[in-house]
Write a structure and sequence with these properties.
5 strands; about 20% strand
Length: about 130
């Protein structure tokens, strides 16, 4: 059975994703707000995909999240890695685009992308 892990600090956003995903996805959907536990949660649940939110103000910037993706790529190579990126941070956007080109992540979207589009893009990666 496929499992999706949402790694994000904002609980209301995670709840909206869970509600939207439940309409089209039958497997477990797990939310983890503690980025330091992300690797453990992905591995423990044999996640098929992980949606990782890059923080705007928290310590979880693009560089941190890309490092997390590199760790996950090595420890859980079958897990699809999908980043949500704040579009206002130009240097962060460049890092994310470079990570996609380098194969460190599978895909990304910007914060201002609709919930439905983000969900459909995530599900299409499975």
């Amino acid at each position: 059975m496929q499992t999706i892990v949402l790694i994000m600090r904002r609980k209301p956003v995670a709840q909206a994703f869970i509600k939207g995903l439940m309409e089209n996805f039958a497997g477990p959907i797990i939310h983890e707000a503690d980025y330091s536990l992300a690797s453990f949660v992905v591995l423990e649940n044999n996640a098929s995909a992980a949606l990782i939110e890059i923080g705007e103000t928290s310590g979880y910037d693009a560089a941190h999240c890309i490092s997390l993706c590199e760790l996950l790529r090595n420890s859980a190579p079958s897990c699809k890695l999908f980043l949500m990126c704040p579009e206002q941070n130009e240097s962060g956007v460049l890092e994310v685009v470079r990570a996609k080109k380098d194969g460190k992540i599978d895909d990304f979207v910007f914060y201002d992308t609709t919930l439905d589009y983000t969900i459909s893009k995530l599900l299409s990666m499975l």
